[in-house]
Amino acid sequence: MDESSNSQGIEDILNTRTTNVGPPEQKAQPVNVPTSFKQRAILVDEIWHAAGDNASDIDWYAKRTVLARLYLTTEIYMLTYTSPDFHDTWAFLDARVKNAFDLKKTIQELHQTLLGIILRGGY
Fold it and tell me: What sections of the protein cross the membrane (predicted)?
C-alpha cells in the first residue's frame, strides 16, 4: 500500500470506528480508563494490520503511538464540538491524518525521541 492510500485507509477506519462505537461520553468516564487503554492498544494494532502494515522494528511502536494519538484526539474533539453528522469532527480528523501521515517525518521524529530516551537511560 502506498502512503497516500494508507493514510486514506486509516482515516476511513478511524471515521467508521468513532461513528459506530457509541457515545464517546460513556467511554470518557474515569471508571473506564483502564479498559479503554487496553482496548485502544488492541484497536490500533488491528487498524494497522488492516491497513497492511507488517512493521516489526521500532516503527511498529512509532506507528501505533501516532495512530493512538489520532484516535484519542478525534474522540476528544467529538466530545467537545458538535456539528450535524459530526461534519467538524471529520474535517478535524482529515487535517490530523494529513499532518500525521507525513509519516516519514513523524516516524523519524518519534524514532529520534525514543532513541534519545533510551540512550539517556530513561527506558
Answer: none
Strands (E), 7-123: none
Are 67 and 47 in contact, with CB atoms under 8 Å apart? yes
Spans of the chain below 70 pLDDT: 1-6, 19-28, 103-104, 121-123
Instruction: Note whether 96 and 74 are within 8 A (CB).
Output: yes
Per-domain residue ranges of the chain = 3-119
- pLDDT, residue 122, reads 56
Cα–Cα distances (Å) from 93 to 7, 55, 76, in that order, read 11, 24, 11
Terminal Cα distance for the chain, rounded? 33
Q: Distance between CA 22 and CA 28 in Å, rounded?
A: 12
